[in-house]
Amino acid sequence: MNWKKITLAAFIFLSIGSLLYFDLNRFFDLDFIKSQLDAIQSYKQENFELTLLIYFCVYCISVALSIPGAMVLTLLGGAVFGVFFGTLVISFASSIGATLAFFTSRVLLRKWVLERFGKYLVPINEGFEREGLFYLFALRMVPIFPFFAVNLLMGLTTIKARSFYIISQLGMFLSTVVYVNAGAQLSMINSLSGIISPPVIISLAILGVSPIIAKYLLNIIKRKKGEEI
């Protein structure tokens, strides 16, 4: 076993151990987050950097281990840190976590990924061969396949890890901003009347039409790409 496999195996072992020991999976439950939001906000006021670091690590580990709950964590990031810091930390945490999942698939779990998600590999390979890095960018903008499946299956392709990371961060940025903003607005609701406030309505509207906006932007990029060719 080479150093890459040892490092990844140690990371997975420590991550799962941390999740179990510290009961971090409670942060993926929306009801728990809502009940603890005031306490989290209060702790953040006194320990901003530490709160940001803990949140970054939990988010990164959840993505790396393909644990469901990224959307809940993203809304939490917007509620606790606001749009600017929430977008900043989530953009990097999600991309780094995705790249760790990518490495894990490539180095340790190739056989398991093929058995579990092999049906997605053929269209992904065809799209990647046809459009190159732009295909990954499109998958990040408009998720045709599950987010975690893209991370794992891309590890079985010939794409370089650096390219995977950069394209993932760029492609996921729009959806990250939309969800973080929604979390920031929803955290301000203190009564039923707050649900119909303009900022909340606008945020929810953007959340709903964001896939359409992403698809529209992709079509523009494709047309420009065709013109350059």
Task: Outline the structure in words.
Helices cover 82% and strands 0% of the residues. It has 229 residues and is mainly alpha-helical. It has one domain (3-228). Helix 2 (30-46) crosses helix 4 and helix 5 packs across helix 7. The longest helix has 38 residues, at 70-107. The radius of gyration is 19 Å and the shape is globular.
Topology summary:
Layout: H1 3-21, H2 30-46, H3 48-64, H4 70-107, H5 110-131, H6 133-141, H7 147-154, H8 161-186, H9 198-228
Helix pairs in contact: 1-4, 2-3, 2-4, 3-4, 4-7, 4-8, 5-6, 5-7, 6-8, 8-9
Give the gist of this structure.
This protein is an all-alpha fold and 229 residues long. It is 82% helix and 0% strand.
Q: Give a count of the beta strands, DSSP E runs of length 2 or more.
A: 0
Mean pLDDT across residues: 76
Order of helices and strands: HHHHHHHHH
Backbone structural class: mainly alpha
Count the domains: 1
Query: How would you sum up the major sheet?
Result: none
Percent helix range: over 70%
Ranges with pLDDT <50 over ≥5 residues? Answer: 189-196
Q: What would the principal axes of the Cα set say about the shape?
A: globular
- Please give the radius of gyration in angstroms: 19 Å
| CA-CA gap between termini | 45 Å
**How many helices in DSSP terms?**
9
Query: What percentage of the residues does DSSP assign to strands (E)?
Result: under 5%
